[in-house]
């Protein structure tokens, strides 16, 4: 085969590989900007409340054992109903936008307590007046206004500061047991199979956080309802919603979870130092929702850079076909400058996306890149018509890849089909080309 043909194709192949250098640098820049955006999101989340997990409540009753040491017995609720509406807001840190939320979480339910103390022979004295209820909140700074605790429809006094024997981190409220029916029933110490009638609680937690809200199902039966006007929820955790509705107006989700597997003890005793339930026990049980931002411009920019080499290769092939079919004289420097122009498209896309949004940035960067290449190629192609063809081809390519970027789930199918159609088009255009004659008239491989 003619040495000129081999040299030309070799140069084009090398230039395609060389384009990896600016594209790699741009991809690294996208990663760096994304990292800075995540840092900004963490800073906003830290001041706003962060990702929240609501746990509980847990009822704790202190007692004194026969060695005169204070110990605690903790009870999980029999039934738990949790509900909350998340009101999303957007906060900015510089050019970065973060989704946060305000909510009022309501916890309702009952405790059906067995005569637990009868099975504790070490009990010497039960401290009814020291009993308290604990509602777990992972980030206490997210509680911005006064919470309310009700026990048997009576308001409870919230404890401030450190609470000895508390099994979970959060808010704690004293409950009146000493003169209550619960106190008398437990004090009677009936048979271990006897249970007192359910005792109700209601807890109202005005809570703000960022990104995610989880609930830990500590009851024997658990019903959780969450809703928001945010139209892009991401459900996560151990349990998927029993039912859900998602629309442009927001979402509602319902969970109905029963503690069949018994992963959490219904009651247990502890000392002052070993009351806390570890996060490794609670976190795997939690579930909830995340207010997901649709594919952000950093993700789209990063994905678009992955397609850059395809666009550059197709553009170079187009110029090469012009050389073969129309005998245009195209110098390697022309290829290099066109490749750089295509690479700068992605830099423009990234920088403009941070201020204008991805779609607007894509349009502006695309028009700028296509216009510059169309104007430049008119100087070395056979005529203005060929330059228009190149511009139209690039417009179709950029438009097709924009659609692919929007349809994330179908991107592989559409991308594969598009590349196949491009190959078919090249085969049709060049099917009658005499490749031996195109570069010097040689008609054999010798």
Automatic annotation (TrEMBL):
Pfam families xrefs: CreD
Keyword Transmembrane assigned: yes
Entry GO CC: plasma membrane
Keyword Transmembrane (UniProt): yes
Transmembrane domains' residue ranges: 307-325, 332-350, 356-376, 388-405, 411-429
UniProt entry keywords in alphabetical sequence: Membrane, Transmembrane, Transmembrane helix
Protein name: Inner membrane protein
């Amino acid at each position: 085969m003619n040495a000129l043909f081999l040299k030309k194709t070799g140069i084009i192949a090398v230039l395609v590989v060389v384009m990896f250098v600016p594209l790699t640098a741009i991809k690294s820049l996208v990663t760096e900007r994304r990292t800075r955006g995540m840092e900004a999101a963490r800073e906003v989340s830290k001041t706003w409340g962060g990702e929240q997990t609501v746990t509980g409540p847990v009822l704790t009753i202190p007692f004194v054992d026969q060695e005169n040491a204070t110990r605690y017995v903790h009870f999980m609720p029999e039934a738990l109903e949790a509900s909350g509406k998340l009101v999303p807001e957007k906060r900015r840190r510089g050019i970065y936008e973060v989704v946060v939320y305000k909510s009022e979480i309501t916890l309702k339910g009952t405790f059906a307590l067995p005569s637990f103390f009868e099975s504790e022979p070490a009990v010497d004295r039960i401290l009814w007046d020291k009993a308290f209820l604990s509602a777990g909140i992972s980030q206490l700074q997210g509680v911005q206004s006064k919470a309310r605790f009700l026990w048997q429809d009576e308001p409870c006094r919230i404890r401030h500061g450190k609470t000895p024997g508390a099994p979970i981190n959060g808010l704690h409220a004293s409950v009146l047991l000493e003169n209550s029916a619960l106190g008398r029933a437990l004090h009677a110490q009936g048979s271990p199979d006897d249970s007192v009638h359910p005792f109700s609680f209601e807890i109202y937690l005005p809570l703000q956080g960022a990104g995610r809200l989880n609930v830990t199902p500590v009851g024997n039966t658990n019903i959780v309802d969450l809703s928001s006007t945010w139209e892009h929820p991401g459900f996560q955790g151990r349990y998927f919603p029993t039912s859900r509705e998602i629309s442009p107006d927001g979402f509602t989700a319902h969970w109905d979870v029963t503690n069949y597997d018994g992963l959490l003890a219904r009651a247990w005793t502890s000392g002052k130092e070993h009351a806390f339930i570890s996060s490794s026990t609670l976190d795997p049980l939690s579930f909830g929702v995340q207010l997901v931002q649709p594919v952000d411009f950093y993700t789209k920019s990063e994905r678009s850079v992955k397609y850059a080499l395809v666009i550059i290769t197709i553009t170079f092939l187009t110029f090469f076909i012009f050389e073969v079919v129309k005998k245009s004289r195209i110098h390697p420097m022309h290829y290099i400058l066109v490749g750089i122009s295509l690479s700068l498209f992605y830099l423009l896309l990234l920088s403009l996306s941070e201020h204008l949004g991805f779609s607007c940035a894509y349009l502006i960067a695309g028009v700028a890149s296509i216009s510059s290449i169309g104007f430049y190629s008119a100087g070395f192609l056979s005529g203005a018509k060929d330059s228009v063809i190149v511009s139209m081809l690039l417009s179709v390519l950029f438009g097709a890849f924009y659609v692919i970027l929007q349809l994330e789930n179908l991107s592989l199918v559409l991308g594969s089909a598009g590349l196949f159609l491009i190959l078919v088009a090249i085969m049709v255009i060049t099917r009658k080309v005499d490749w031996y004659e195109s570069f010097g008239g040689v008609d054999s491989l010798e």
